[in-house]
Amino acid sequence: MRLNFKLFLCFILIPLILSAQEETQVDLKNYEQEDPETVFFNIGLYKPLAFGDNSFHKAYATADTGLEIDFNWLAFSDFTVGFKLDIFYASVDDISKVGAINGTRVTNYSIHAGYYKAITREWNWHASLGVGSVGYRSSTYDDIIREYGWNLYFQNELNYRFNQYFGIFGKVQLRADFLDIETARPKDDFLNNQWFLIPGIGIRINFHNPEG
Fold first, then answer.
1. Residues 6+ apart with CB under 8 A from 105
2. Rounded to 5 degrees, what angle do the CA atoms 7, 13, 18 make?
3. Over the Cα atoms of the chain, what is R_g?
4. Which residue(s) pair with 167 in the sheet?
C-alpha cells in the first residue's frame, strides 16, 4: 500500500510539474482567469507522516492512506472559505509507549479560509489555514478509548483543470493535533501534541459563475 501510494503520487505530480514548466508565455502577474470557480469540491487521498517527539511518531506504524472531502467557496476574487471532513487509521508498533492499544482512527472536522490565485486558465494555486475538531478512537483488546481535541493546519495546493467541471490537485499540509488526555506530567506532550506532514492527491469538481 505504501509503495503503491508513492508511485501513484509520482505518476500524478510529475506530469503536472513538467506541464507547469512549459507555461513560459503566460504573464503570471497580470493574468486574470475569465471563468473562475465559485464553488469547488476536493475528494482526495492523503498520507499522514508523523514527526517529532510524540506517540504517533514513536509508537505507531506509518498511518494508512486517509480520505478527505473538502468544500470551498470563492467568497471574493482571491479569498475562499470552506469546511472539510477527513479520516485516517494507524496501527500501533510499540505498545510499551502507549499501552495496550491496537490502533487509532482519527477523524477531523474543520473550517478554513484561504487565498486563491489563478496562474493560467488551467492552473491555479490555493493556500489555506484551517482549524478543526479532532477525535481519536483507539481500540484495545476489550475496550474502545475516545479522546478529543482540536487542531490547526496550513495547506498548499496546486490544481490543474481539464475543463469547466473537472480537475486534479496535489497538496502538502502541515498539521498539529492538540488533545486533552489526562496523564502524568512528563507524558503530556508525548500523548497530546501530534504533528503531521501530509502530502495528498485527488480530484476537484468545479462549479462556475454563469457570468464568468
1. 87, 88, 89, 136, 137, 138
2. 125
3. 19
4. 161, 204
CA-to-CA distance for 95 and 60, rounded, in angstroms? Answer: 9
**Lookup: cell for 31:** 493574468
Assess contact for 46 and 64: CB atoms under 8 A.
no
Q: What cell does 199 get?
A: 502530502
Domain covering 36-208 assigned CATH 2.40.160.20 in the classification = yes
What sign does the dihedral 161-167-171-176 (CA atoms) show? Answer: positive
Distance CA 202, CA 120 (A): 20
| pLDDT per residue of the chain (212 residues) written in tens, 0 to 9 | 454 455 445 545 544 444 444 443 444 444 455 555 689 999 999 999 999 999 999 999 999 999 999 999 998 878 999 999 999 999 999 888 888 899 999 999 999 999 999 898 889 999 999 999 999 999 988 899 999 999 999 999 999 999 888 999 999 999 999 998 776 655 678 888 999 999 999 999 988 654 43
Is this prediction's pTM over 0.90? Answer: no
Going from N- to C-terminal start, the domains of the chain cover 36-208
